[in-house]
Amino acid sequence: MDKVAMDHETLDRDMTRSEALTARVESKLEEKGHTDAVKTFRTALQDFMTEIVPLAETQTILETTIELTEDKSVRTEFAAFLDAPLDTPEQQATARAALCQISGIEFTMPWPKNHKVVVELLRKIPETAGKHWGPAGRENFRSFVRMFSSTAERSPAEETKRRKDLLEMAEPVSDLQEMLLKLWHAQDNPVW
């Protein structure tokens, strides 16, 4: 098996595990009557991915939110991040890597001033794709998300092809195509 295929398998496995863990946390919060905490949990993870808030704040928010689940096994799943010291840059890097693995992502990335547009579109695009393809189209959804979230280094020609392929996949959903175009415009024209 080649490295790219292994990387896709690892990404799929991490995404599946992360989706299940996220669903479990959200379900536990809802069961306990903390429906408002579901949004807090989602926002904390999104803010972490885009480095909008300091790690210490993410740690505090997740600790508080996860406590509300009253499920020690959920706390255990996040322990590598929640219990990590954050005093040095090395400790912060270790903590960040731990939450990346828990979250099923490869790395985090700070965003420019127009990050809110980017963040909103990064949230909406997979959500819209998921609604379009639904449970019956899970493989199409995963293919789209895998290509959409791929962090592989590409030449400009390869990136152009990737974007064209994503637009073709999104063709049945004009809103999805429009969101992709807006995202790429914001990414290609960052405001620092």
Please explain how this structure is put together.
The chain is built from nine helices and no strands. It is mainly alpha-helical. The chain folds into two domains: 101 residues, no CATH class; 74 residues, no CATH class. Helix 2 runs antiparallel to helix 3 and helix 3 runs antiparallel to helix 4. It starts with a helix and ends with a helix.
Q: Topology, please?
A:
Elements: H1 3-31, H2 35-49, H3 55-67, H4 72-82, H5 89-103, H6 115-133, H7 138-149, H8 156-169, H9 174-188
Helix pairs in contact: 1-2, 2-3, 3-4, 4-5, 6-7, 6-9
Number of domains: 2
Largest sheet: none
Instruction: State the total count of DSSP E strands.
Output: 0
Share of helix among residues? over 70%
**How much β-strand is present in the residues?**
under 5%
What structural category do the secondary elements indicate? Answer: mainly alpha
Number of helices: 9
Report the span from N to C terminus.
Answer: 41 Å
Shape: globular
Quote the average pLDDT: 88
**Low-confidence spans: pLDDT under 50, at least 5 residues?**
1-6
Order of helices and strands: HHHHHHHHH
Question: What is the alpha-carbon Rg in Å?
Answer: 17 Å
Features:
9 helices; 192 residues; globular; 2 domains; mainly alpha
Nutshell version of this structure?
The protein is mostly helical and 192 residues long.
